[in-house]
Write a structure and sequence with these properties.
Helices cover 36% and strands 19% of the residues. With 154 residues, the chain is α+β, with helices and mostly antiparallel strands. The chain folds into 2 domains: 41 residues, Winged helix-like DNA-binding domain superfamily/Winged helix DNA-binding domain (Arc Repressor Mutant, subunit A, Orthogonal Bundle); 82 residues, Lrp/AsnC effector binding domain/regulation of amino acid metabolism (RAM) domain (Alpha-Beta Plaits), CATH 3.30.70. A hairpin with a 7-residue loop joins strand 2 and strand 3. Helix 2 packs across helix 3. It is elongated, with a radius of gyration of 20 Å.
């Protein structure tokens, strides 16, 4: 899909304000409401907009410990990786799982839990028990310096 300036503006605004009304969205980018809505629907149908969600305050939910975990696998087989990915995908504490290169690890997980006890339980009772996990290295986030999910619109 070829994006014009209106599409780029729509995508940028919707990333920042997902609950904005169509009327206000149209006014902010200089279109009338009907064409604006048609464009948003076209962006959704094209798969550029994949969903809308609410951002929650982790601390107010009691989730105060954010950790990055590097995971090494014993064998690099499609079956091992598929099993690992399925198991970590089912863990609600796992916010992100990345298959990585350039490290001693195969995966990087971003997890969030209540405290160190909850982290220990997650690590020892769940993650290290996944078949194929041979090494784990944890780092704990002291402060989020940049924390955004909005993509740059080319």
């Amino acid at each position: 899909m070829e994006l014009d300036r209106y599409d780029r503006q729509l995508l940028a605004l919707l990333q920042q304000e997902g609950r904005i009304s169509n009327q206000e969205l149209a006014e902010r980018i200089g279109l009338s409401p009907s064409p604006c809505l048609r464009r948003v629907r076209a962006l959704e149908e094209a798969g550029l907009i994949t969903g809308y969600h609410a951002e929650l305050d982790a601390k107010k939910l009691g989730l105060t410990l954010l950790a990055l975990i590097h995971i090494s696998m014993d064998r690099h087989t499609p079956e091992r990786f598929a099993n690992f990915e399925a198991r970590v995908s089912a863990l609600p504490e796992v916010l992100e799982c990345l298959l990585i290169t350039g490290q001693d690890a195969d995966y990087q997980l971003k997890v969030i839990v209540r405290d160190m006890d909850a982290y220990q339980a997650l690590l020892l009772e769940q993650i290290t028990r996944i078949e194929g996990v041979s090494g784990v290295h944890s780092s704990f986030v002291m402060r989020r310096v940049v924390d955004k999910s909005a993509l740059p619109i080319p």
